[in-house]
Every structure is written in C-alpha cells, then in structure tokens.
Design a protein that fits this description.
- The structure is a single chain.
- Helix content is 47%, strand content 11%.
- It is an alpha/beta fold and 453 residues long.
- The chain has two domains: 207 residues, Periplasmic binding protein-like II (D-Maltodextrin-Binding Protein, domain 2); 162 residues, 3-Layer(aba) Sandwich (D-Maltodextrin-Binding Protein, domain 2), CATH 3.40.190.10.
- The chain is globular and about 60 Å long.
- The two termini are 25 Å apart.
- 57% of the residues are buried.
Length: 453
C-alpha cells in the first residue's frame, strides 16, 4: 500500500479546498445529511440483512471515550434495534491487548473488540483469541472495501478485522479568531509553520497545544515529519525495523521536530505542561477561552472535529484546518483506523461484524462528525460538513494508495503501550528535545526487543 505522489497531492488539494469553502457550514448543518438526517443518514431500506437475536447479550470493548464513545454507541443502538440483541459498551484501557488479556484470563472476554493497531490484531490471532470473520462479514467487506483495507485486517491470508473507522492523521486544526487577530496564515511548508507559530506567539497566544500525556499523538507528529522528510521507502523500512532508529534519517526528523517541541514558549504549559495534557484537553485548550485560548493550534486527525464541537466550536468557522505542511519535497498523508475483531465465534458477534462492514453503520457515525470511513460504497452526503465529506471522499478515491500509521504497524509493546517503547521515548524527548542521540538510542533499544519477540 504505497502512497504515490499523485495521491498525496490529490488528498491535500481536496482538504485545502474544503478549508477555504466551508465557512458558514458548521457541524450542525442538518441540510447536508443524507435522507433521514437525524437518524444518522440511514437509507430508507437497510443495506444489509441481519439475523434476529432477541435475548442475546453482546459486549463490545474499545478505548474510545467522550464523543467517540457516544457516537459509536449510536451505531450499537441501531444494531440492537434491528436484531433485538442487548449490546453493552465496555470501556477499555491502552494497551487494549493487555486489557483483553486480563478479561480472557478471568473468563470474561468481550464478544467483540475494536483494535486500533494491525499489530494488535496479529497479537490477538497469535494468542488464539481472535475468531475469523464469517461469510456474511467477508461478503460485506468485499462489496464495500478495497483490497488494501481488507488486507490490513487479515493475518496469514485469513480475514479477522473489519476496519470500521479510518483517520487522516495529517491535519493541523487552528482557532480562526486567533489567526485573524494575529494576521497568521496557513502553512504549506515546515518553515512556514515555524513562522506561523512565531506570528501567533507574537500576538500574545501560545502557538501549540501538544497532547504529551497521550504518547500516540507524539508518534503521529514524528511520522508525518519522517514520511515527508525521509520519504515512503525509508518510512516502510523503519516501520518494519529493517533500518534502525539510530539511522541518520531519524536524527534528522527528531532534530526538525525539536524546532517546535524545543521552544518552551511554543507549547501551552511548556514541555512539562504538555506532558500533562491528554488529547481531548489539547483540542479544548485550542477552542475555548474566547480571544485568549491557551493555544492557537493543535495537530491531529480528522477525529479532532468531534472534540472541537464538544468545545462549542463551529467547524469551518471557529475551527479551521490545513494539511500537515511539507517538510521535504512532498506533504505527508498518514492514515490510521480501528478494526472490529470477534473474540467469540457466536451468531451475535458475527452479525455485529457484518453490520459494521455495511454502509448503514458507517453512515450513522459519519453523520455525527469526527469520523471518516474507508467504506467506498457509503453515501458521502452522510458527512455533516464539507471538510469531513471531502476528506472522506479523498480517502476513498485514494484506493489502496496510502500509508498506515507506523506505530500501529509495530508490535504493540513498542508502538502502542503507555509508558513503554516509542510512546515513552517520545515523551522523554518532549521533556528534553535537545537529547536527539539519547532519544534515538532509547527508541532503538525498545524496538530491538519488541521486534525480536
């Protein structure tokens, strides 16, 4: 799944046009929803037939909280209405594989888990927890998904995961009032971004809110810089640990990252303060506080829209977005996603996988915002505004030409565990951005152990 220059430019162009044309089109614009509007954009006739499951109980585990959890529960509610099954959302903690391990050891595993990393899917398969997707789920996947998205959820040629939720993780959201007051401009290059940050700072607002308490956001910062600066081939090699984290290309990326992380005045709360801020808080800090929010910008994926809306920001008016700027020759486009995996081979769990692979389920969450679907047959008018609609269309139009989140491809102990591996190393680097060599050594030591096992 290689990201071509053509595809990257096409995706960036779509996002840029969206940011310019969206003014006045907020997240509550019901007129943009598909027929059925308030019911999540569902078609009048269901796109998939589901079995009757009256009396069945189903538990679904995910690490989602806040608006993500609420919006996913709306999808589960529709599944319950159609099947009669009683579905319970089970809040999980990162790393979800460890959480599932404890549940399984206690004899009480959830029926289905939403796994945020391909590495986690492989671990669940290797541990013999995961159950293969059934015929009906696979039929929906073949109908609605490209081969690339099917393959990410497969292990050893067998389909296990249904990638229900995708993400464009190459976006910078900004407070429109702050930019207007400062005379700041959207950045097209990394040099421009540093200049924009300085302009925002000179206006009296701290430029960035960095969610340092959530290590995964820090990996996304690194990955965007690395993909743009080192290029797709190096990105693939580092993702597979075919080159070491002590490679000069990693040094260059960390040095570049330190141009922002290393400036205390550029981060809300400084480096130490950033390490206390989780992702929802980082978005809140950017879009609350009137003319004087704690920060003017926050980096993260399209899903940040839901958190901005929670902060009462209108998408396209108060909260605007531009693509992560080019560090090297080309701007980066990094994607991520969450896959549903059955842990019990029951009629109910397989029915849920089938539903999540359908257009109906995708359109329910799409209508709420903070969600992009890789489902190519989904009605794009289900998205509540032009920003999400165009990002979703660009994702579908890209077909199999995309780069998946590097840390999500790694063994979870390295790329997806709080307090360990890449998350811990980058948090330590945020604390001391001058120690590039130390960060590289720490990253390589953790990676060598993780990939060996």
């Amino acid at each position: 799944m290689r990201t071509t220059l053509r595809t990257r430019k096409a995706v960036l162009a779509v996002i840029a046009v969206s940011a310019l044309t969206l003014a006045g089109c907020g997240g509550s614009d019901d007129g943009d929803k598909a027929d059925g509007g308030s019911d999540g954009g569902k078609k009048s006739a269901p796109s998939v037939e589901l079995p009757k499951l009256d009396g069945e109980k189903l538990e679904v585990a995910a690490v989602w909280t806040g608006p993500e959890q609420k919006n996913f529960e709306k999808v589960l509610d529709e599944f319950s209405k159609r099947t009669g099954a009683e579905v319970t959302f089970v809040p999980a903690q990162d790393p979800i594989v460890n959480f599932l391990g404890s549940k399984i050891a206690g004899g009480d595993p959830p029926d289905v888990a939403m796994l945020p990393q391909p590495g986690a899917i492989k671990q669940a398969v290797d541990k013999k927890w995961a159950k293969p997707a059934g015929a009906a789920a696979k039929a929906q996947l073949e109908k609605n998904y490209t081969k690339g998205w099917q393959d990410i959820g497969a292990v050893g040629g067998e389909q296990y995961g249904v990638y229900f939720k995708a993400a464009n993780k190459s976006l910078i959201w900004y407070n429109a009032t702050v930019f207007e007051n400062a005379g700041a401009e959207e950045a097209k290059t990394w040099k421009d971004l540093v200049t924009t940050a300085q302009t925002v700072y000179d206006s009296g607002v701290t430029p960035f809110s960095v969610a340092g308490a959530d290590g995964w956001t820090l990996t996304d910062w690194f990955e965007n810089i690395y993909l743009s600066q080192a290029g797709p081939e190096k990105y693939d090699q580092l993702a597979k640990h075919e080159i070491k984290w002590t490679d000069p290309s990693v040094k260059q990326a960390l040095t570049t990252l330190a141009e922002i992380w290393g400036k205390k005045d550029f981060l809300a709360g400084g480096q130490s303060g950033a390490l206390q801020v989780d992702f929802p808080k980082s978005v809140e800090q950017t879009f609350t506080g009137g003319d004087q929010p704690k920060s003017g910008m926050v980096f993260e994926g399209d899903f940040a829209a839901a958190n901005a809306q929670e902060a009462k920001a209108e998408i396209g008016k108060d909260a605007k977005v531009f693509p992560f700027p080019a560090v090297g020759a080309d701007a980066p486009v990094v994607t991520g996603g969450d896959a549903a995996v059955a842990l019990k081979d029951s009629k109910a769990s397989q029915a849920l996988l089938t539903f999540l692979a359908s257009t109906d389920a995708a359109e329910i969450w799409a209508a709420q915002g903070g969600f992009v679907s890789p489902n190519k047959e989904m009605d794009q008018s289900a998205y509540p505004n032009d920003v999400l609609r165009d990002i979703g269309k660009a994702l579908v139009d890209a077909g199999d030409d995309f780069r998946f989140d590097m840390s999500d491809q790694a063994p979870q102990v390295f790329g997806g565990t709080p307090g360990k591996g890449e998350w811990k190393a980058l948090q330590d680097f945020l604390k001391n951005p001058k120690d590039v060599a130390g960060a590289q050594k720490q990253l390589e030591s953790a990676a060598a152990k993780a990939y060996k096992n």
